[in-house]
Design a protein that fits this description.
The chain is α/β, with parallel strands linked by helices and 289 residues long. The protein contains 11 helices and 8 strands. The protein has an 8-stranded mixed beta sheet with strand order 2-1-8-7-3-6-4-5. Helix 4 runs antiparallel to helix 5. The N terminus is likely disordered.
């Protein structure tokens, strides 16, 4: 009886310990069903393009981006191409020079317009590309041109020189103001400034259009592009996804999004359906900046 009592107490202790475990994250599929990371890999490995939507200051997002990159590289080798919102198209030359070893890391970091959290969050991805001879797309529109659109609309881009126009998609820029991602930017609930003018969503759209443009420019049959971007740029299969599908409706595109919740054990209804896979992170997770 004593032995059985010890076993029972041990089982109760294990159950209590498991119940009070504090997982940092869980993956869910589009329907809100919990899935393992291995399932995510299995489902995205044959995609032409994967958009990993992050929270810019979330360390779990950045860690999982690197882990996904490693797993896909093991499968695709030199067929894998990386790209990111965090690097602007006019920095492609300096990115290529660094990756090829033509310039030093010090020169690259001094001259490229890097985000404040580059060293903690994006440098591991760029370093992985360099170590494995992978291309890395500086995909985003130069911010000065996004500002130009905010001030003058898409028409302002017509004033650019021919050389400058090489850094953006072909004009005129396609745009659907009825897309929920853009409509939300003009509402108070969208979290944008109340004084925002009608060009605000267009300034967002030129970013989406440019990222889609350079993703497609660097993709070809047999290759796979893994692109890192803020979740808003790919959630609900809009934004970048809309532009990609406009250009090539036959693409096999997979999306991953990031959300935060107080309880990561089940996905809230509002977070279901926003991507093929949803990385749900504890809302108390430490931020990187």
């Amino acid at each position: 009886m004593k032995r059985h009592g010890i076993i029972l107490l041990s089982v109760i202790w294990l159950l209590f310990a498991f119940k009070n475990d504090k997982p940092a994250y869980h993956y869910f599929n589009i329907d809100g069903k919990k899935v393992k990371f291995s399932k995510v890999i299995k489902e995205v490995k044959d995609a032409d393009i994967i958009l990993f939507g992050e929270y810019h200051n979330n360390p779990i997002s950045h860690w999982m981006q690197l882990e996904l990159t490693k797993e896909l590289h093991a499968l695709k080798q030199d067929k894998l191409v990386l790209g990111a919102e965090m690097f602007e198209s006019d920095n492609q030359l300096i990115m290529d020079e660094y990756l090829s070893g033509l310039i030093s890391e010090k020169k690259f970091e001094a001259e490229a317009r890097l985000w404040p959290n580059y060293k903690t969050d994006y440098k591991p991805l760029v370093s992985f590309a360099k170590e494995n001879n992978l291309d890395f797309i500086a995909a985003n529109v130069p911010r000065r041109y996004a500002s130009l659109v905010y001030g003058k609309g898409f028409e302002g881009l017509e004033e650019l020189s021919d050389d400058a126009k090489k850094l953006i998609p072909a004009l005129p820029i396609k745009y659907d103001p009825e897309l929920a991602c853009y409509k939300a930017m003009m509402s108070a609930s969208g979290g944008m400034p109340m004084h925002a003018n009608n060009n605000l969503p267009k300034a967002q759209a030129i970013k989406d259009a440019t990222m889609a443009h350079f993703i497609l420019k660097n993709w070809s049959e047999g290759k796979q592009v893994l692109h890192y971007n803020g979740a808003y740029h790919s959630d609900n299969f809009e934004s970048i996804v809309w532009y990609l599908r406009k250009a090539n409706p036959d693409l096999n595109i997979k999306t991953i999004s990031t959300v935060s919740q107080a309880d990561v054990d089940s996905l809230m209804d509002e977070n279901k359906g926003i991507a093929d896979f949803i990385l749900c992170v504890d809302e108390n997770m430490t931020s990187t900046h």
